[in-house]
Design a protein that fits this description.
mainly beta; 56% strand
């Protein structure tokens, strides 16, 4: 990083440069926190989500997370911890959650976990797995989502682990979308006091 105009995400060959709004002096054995990204006007939404980075069956339903989702639009973000604050009745900042993130390109979708939704659960099941070659496997997955609340909810199911250049998603019961090279996301609507099911196949490996 360097002192400058405060613009974020310039590139020096393959390395992004994040400039600070003013010169910063750090003494020996001293640490400082410096704000260098202005996120005023950032559009964010509270969501329910469930993340899995593998293909496995869990015997016990898992609680969905309550998270804040946003896009970093035209600004790249460095690796670090993103903290979320909200204003209380006295307009004081109140810490509500944090997540570490990797170095993130501009126009990426991010979500920061705030806690768990105890009335919304997700249970993944591997319906079948088929070895196609030494390094390539096709999984058929089923996710059962339950909602004990009096209002319907939408849950983002994020399937990571789509490694390999020829990874494929098929047979989707609900259309999904690829948000990065390794992750597919489905928005599943779950009725009040009810259940919904998501099924799909995933072929992974080289």
């Amino acid at each position: 990083m360097r002192g400058g105009t405060g613009a974020a995400g310039e590139n020096a060959e393959d390395f992004p440069i994040y400039t600070l709004p003013e010169r910063v002096t750090v003494a020996e054995n001293q640490t400082k926190q410096v704000s260098f990204l202005d996120l005023a006007g950032l559009k964010a939404a509270k969501i329910y989500e469930y993340r899995s980075n593998s293909f496995s069956t869990l015997e016990t339903p898992q609680h969905a997370a309550v998270a804040v989702r946003f896009s970093n639009t035209s600004r790249a973000l460095p690796a670090g911890t993103v903290r979320v604050y909200t204003s209380d009745v006295g307009r004081h900042a109140k810490f509500v959650g944090e997540n570490p993130i990797d170095q993130t390109p501009a126009n990426s979708e991010l979500s920061i976990k705030l806690g768990e939704a105890f009335d919304v659960t997700v249970q993944p099941v591997v319906v079948s797995s088929e070895k196609l070659s030494r390094s390539r496997t096709r999984y058929t997955m089923r996710y059962t989502l339950s909602n004990a609340m009096a209002a319907p909810v939408a849950v983002d199911v994020r399937q990571g682990g789509l490694f390999g250049r020829d990874s494929e998603i098929g047979d989707e019961s609900i259309p999904g979308r690829r948000v990065d090279a390794y992750t597919q996301v489905w928005s599943v609507k779950v009725p009040a006091h009810g259940e919904a099911t998501l099924t799909y196949s995933a072929t992974v490996g080289g």
